[in-house]
Each structure stands twice: as structure tokens, then as C-alpha cells.
Design a protein that fits this description.
Length: about 270
């Protein structure tokens, strides 16, 4: 090859090589640092979680119903201690487990999922809260909240088990749950109103449903099954069954109840 041709090839190739080398550190840096940490990113991460992860980790990320996925709300993870490590676990999966990677998702979506998982554990101390957990516990009992909610094995089943609610919800979320319980209702706690062919109506928590039948638990915690073909109609009610406070909670009572609920966690449960 003539020397002039060699020089032309080198002149063309060298910038290409430099561009390639310049791009590599930037890609690596992106993988080590989460640039997607806004509230919108939390919501987008939650959307991806609910689309891809609930079958193993549950809708609230506390673990699947069959125990085949770990609780992701505790602030630590089995196979990662950093955001970058968590990113790689989500992307690549974990060998020898049912955790498969989400390699078909873009980098931004995986980082948003990391942000969402980090948001599930908020390091807030009880001492930082204005309310009194002991006063809140008395209020919880006085308002008969245990009629619907279990706390450490005691209570009813018409509402969520609150034994470790302080690990899953931060104080602001707990306050919102108390003020407006219908703002965000897990499908597990939807109710169904069944109108039978004789015109009578039965209503209860939606325990199971398929193409041909449905099962509910009524206010007496009795399970009832219905054939869809055998009833006049059935209607899903997506609002919370939690009744309004009567009398309404004062600001102090709300603070006390939030403090008590936030104190409910594994290490304090006995």
C-alpha cells in the first residue's frame, strides 16, 4: 500500500478510535450513578414494578403470597448494597434463583425502578414525629380499629394487617391513608356487591374471581361463593371500606395515631 494511502487510513481511523474510547467511560459512569431520582421517576419505577415484579414480590413489595420473593421494603437487599449493585441485579438477575433480569428495559427505566425501591424505606425516627405512640395505641383501641385490622395476631380480617405497617408506609403516607383512605386502594381490598336473582344484595371483600365465579368475605368474615351466571349482577367497588372517623380526628389525635402506626414494625412486635 502506498504511504499516502496509509496516512489517509490512519487519519480516518484515529478519530473513530478516540470517539469509541471516549464513549466507554461515560457509559460506565452512567451505570454507576443514578440520575433519575425525582418524584416522577419514583412513579415511573412503581409502574414498572407493578408490571414486572408483583408476582414474586407482591403489590406492596413485601414479598409474594407464596413466599418466593423477598421483602424489598426493609432498606437492605440480599444481593446488593449500593444503587449500582441493585441496578445490576435488576438488569442481570441472580443465578440459581427465580430472579430473572429485565434486559429488555432501557437503562432509564431500570434506574427508575431502583429509585422506587429505595423510596420504600424511609429512615424516619419516632422521635422526629410530633405524636405519641402510646396515646395513638389507646386511640386505636378506643376507636375499635381492631375490629377490621390485625396487629400482632389480634384483630379482624376486614382490613389490611397493620403489624408491620411502619415498614411499608412513611408518616406522610399514613396520614394520607387516615385522611383519605379511598385515594389509593389495593385491589386486594376492593369490595363486590352481588345482586341475586331474588333481588337480595350481598356485599363483601373481593377474595377471588375468575371468568365464571367469584368469592367474597362478608362483614361477619364468612366466605361466600357465587356463580356469575346464577346472579342478576355483580359490581366491583374500588373505594375503601374504612369508615369515616366519628367524631372526626383532631390534629393531635391524627399525629398520635400516625406515630403509633409508624411504630408497628418487626423489631417492635412482640
Amino acid at each position: 500500500m502506498p504511504k499516502t494511502a496509509v496516512r489517509r487510513v490512519m487519519r480516518v481511523s484515529l478519530p473513530v478510535v478516540l470517539i469509541a474510547l471516549a464513549g466507554a467511560p461515560e457509559s460506565a459512569a452512567q451505570e454507576e450513578e443514578n440520575l433519575y431520582t425525582s418524584r416522577i421517576d419514583v412513579r415511573m419505577g412503581q409502574r414498572l414494578f407493578r408490571a414486572r415484579c408483583v408476582s414474586c414480590h407482591g403489590l406492596d413489595a413485601t414479598g409474594g403470597e407464596e413466599g418466593n420473593g423477598p421483602d424489598l421494603t426493609l432498606g437492605w437487599f440480599r444481593n446488593a448494597s449500593t444503587d449500582a449493585g441493585l441496578y445490576r441485579v435488576i438488569r442481570d438477575g441472580v443465578d440459581g434463583t427465580s430472579m430473572v433480569g429485565v434486559v429488555d428495559e432501557p437503562e432509564q427505566s431500570i434506574w427508575q425502578l431502583v429509585t422506587y425501591l429505595r423510596s420504600l424505606h424511609v429512615a424516619v425516627e419516632l422521635a422526629d414525629l410530633p405524636g405519641s405512640p402510646s396515646a395513638g395505641q389507646q386511640l386505636f383501641a378506643g376507636r375499635d380499629c381492631g375490629r377490621c385490622h390485625i396487629v400482632h395476631g389480634q384483630g379482624g380480617r376486614l382490613g389490611p394487617d397493620l403489624s408491620t405497617i411502619g415498614e411499608r408506609r412513611d408518616p406522610d403516607e399514613l396520614q394520607s391513608d387516615l385522611i383519605d383512605p379511598s385515594a389509593e386502594v389495593n385491589p386486594r381490598w376492593w369490595t363486590v356487591r352481588v345482586t341475586r336473582r331474588d333481588g337480595s344484595v350481598v356485599e363483601g371483600l373481593r377474595m377471588g374471581e375468575d371468568t365464571f365465579s367469584l368469592r367474597i368475605m362478608d362483614a361477619e368474615e364468612k366466605l361466600r361463593s357465587f356463580s356469575k351466571a346464577g346472579v342478576l349482577s355483580h359490581e366491583r367497588i374500588k373505594e375503601s371500606t374504612m369508615p369515616s372517623s366519628d367524631p372526626p380526628l383532631t390534629a393531635k389525635e391524627l399525629d398520635d395515631l400516625v406515630a403509633y402506626l409508624f411504630s408497628l414494625r418487626r423489631e417492635n412486635g412482640s
